[in-house]
């Protein structure tokens, strides 16, 4: 009899252990992952995410190399249209840069004071060129760069929860659209060298409500 009681007691312990494990698994499965409160900063204009801050940084750096590149176009370009486009982009980036700094100050975002490594190498390349070679590289380097920042602006504009960033992204899109059009108007942009749009994912199947009377 004592051995029978011990077996029953061990069985109860195993059963209890099973319930504990099952409960723990249920908690892990049911509870959502914890939200990192540091991922977004609360501001009067809404939460400010890492993507919002990154947008301000990218637009600031775009201006830091495209404004000097516009000055290069004034003295190094052979084409009068490239000279004109360089002047337009330089002047408009000056206005956009002011907007960027004002928005960043309002939201407490630190901005860089120099272009990134790639942009510095593009500046060095243009600074060493002149004539038709400069015209071609100016048009293509800036057109490719505008395409990249345009996609960032569009993505942030579509999903930001911050009203100041939403307004800034909208203005940025307008500037970049004009600049791409200016650059393409030179007739020197090689569109075959631009990155292709990503392949869209398959559309989900359409579902229709059942007809009345059907089972």
TrEMBL record:
Bias (Pro residues): 197-208
Region: Disordered, residue numbers: 190-215
Residue intervals of the DUF4142 domain: 51-180
Pfam families: DUF4142 (PF13628)
Domain of life from the UniProt record: Bacteria
InterPro entries reported for this sequence: DUF4142
UniProt protein name: DUF4142 domain-containing protein
Organism: Nonomuraea guangzhouensis
Lineage: Bacteria, Bacillati, Actinomycetota, Actinomycetes, Streptosporangiales
């Amino acid at each position: 009899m004592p051995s029978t009681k011990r077996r029953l007691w061990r069985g109860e312990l195993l059963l209890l252990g099973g319930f504990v494990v099952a409960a723990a698994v249920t908690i892990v499965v049911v509870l959502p992952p914890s939200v990192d409160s540091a991922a977004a900063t609360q501001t009067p204009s809404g939460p400010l995410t890492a993507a919002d801050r990154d947008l301000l940084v990218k637009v600031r750096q775009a201006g830091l190399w495209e404004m000097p590149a516009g000055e290069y176009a004034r003295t190094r370009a052979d084409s009068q249209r490239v000279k004109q486009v360089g002047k337009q982009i330089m002047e408009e980036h000056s206005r956009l840069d002011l907007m960027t700094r004002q928005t960043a100050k309002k939201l407490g975002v630190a901005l860089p004071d120099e272009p990134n490594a790639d942009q510095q190498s593009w500046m060095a390349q243009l600074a060493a060129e002149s004539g038709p070679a400069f015209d071609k590289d100016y048009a293509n380097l800036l057109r490719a760069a505008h395409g990249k920042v345009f996609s960032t602006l569009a993505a942030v504009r579509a999903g930001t929860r911050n009203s100041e960033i939403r307004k800034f992204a909208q203005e940025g899109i307008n500037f970049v659209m004009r600049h791409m059009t200016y650059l393409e108007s030179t007739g020197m942009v090689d569109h075959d060298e631009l990155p292709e749009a990503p392949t869209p994912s398959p559309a989900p199947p359409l579902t229709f409500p059942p007809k009345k009377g059907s089972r």
